[in-house]
Amino acid sequence: MRFLDLPERTSGKRTYGITSIVDFGIPSKELENILYDFGHIIDIAKLGIGSAYVTPNVEKKISLYKKHDITPYCGGTLFEKAYHQNKLTEYIEYLKGLEIDWIEVSNGTVDIPLNDRLDLVSHLKKDFHVIAEVGSKDANKHMSTSDWVDEVRSLLENGCKYVITEGRDSGTSGIYDKSGLIKSELVDELLKEIDCNKIIFEAPLPKHQMYFINEIGPNVNLGNVKLSDVLILEAQRCGLRCETFFLEENKCRLPL
C-alpha cells in the first residue's frame, strides 16, 4: 500500500534518473538473487575496471543484466588497455561477440588527447552507444574548470550518449579531492553549462550520493554505485533518509 507523498521518480527504461552500478566480480548466482529484488531500480551495469576480460561465465552475467532490462558495458580501463596495446579492432570484435552495444571512451589512466577521443567517438558511434568519461584517476593531475566544461560539452556534441565524471570507486579523484570532498565549484559550473540529464556523476559513497540528490534532485544520474547500496540509494532519492527528508522536486530541466 502506497500512502506517502514522495518525489516523483522516473521509471521504466529511464533516460535520466539513472542508477549505474559497478560490478567488480560478484558471482553469477549472487547477482541473480540481487537482480530478482532490485533489478527494477538499476539501469546500467559497468563491469568494473578490466574485470570483464577475466570474469568466468561473463556471457551469463551479461544475459542476467539484459533479462532485467539493465544495460551492461565494460569499464573504461579495458578500453584504455586495448588502446594502449593498439588492439581496439580486437576489442570492438570482443564487445560485439558479447553482444554489448555500449562502449566507454575514457582517459583515466592513459593520457588520450581530447581530439583523439573525439575522433574515436565519431568512429565508434556508428556501431555503439558511446559514453565518455572525463577526469583522471590520478588525484595529483589538475584540470581546470573550463577544461572540464569544454571536454564534457565537446564529447556530448560529438555524439556521446552520456558523459561520466570521474570519481573512482573510492571517491578520491576527478570531481573529488584526495580527501573525498566534492569539488562543489566545479559541479556548480558543470550544472550551469551542461544539461545535467546528460551527465552521470560517479558517486561511490552514500555521502556523495546525498550531495548530488540534494543539489540536483531525485532524478540525478549517479554512477559507480555499489550493488549493496542500490536500495538505500533509492530510499535517498525518495526522501526516505534524514539527509534527504525535505527533498525538493527534480531541479534539472527535463529533456526536450
UniProtKB/TrEMBL annotation:
Q: Which Gene3D superfamilies match?
A: Aldolase class I
Q: Which family does it belong to?
A: Belongs to the phosphosulfolactate synthase family.
Q: Which domain of life is it from?
A: Bacteria
Q: Which protein is depicted?
A: Phosphosulfolactate synthase
In terms of PANTHER family, this protein maps to: PROTEIN HEAT-STRESS-ASSOCIATED 32, PTHR48413
Question: Origin organism of this chain?
Answer: Siminovitchia acidinfaciens
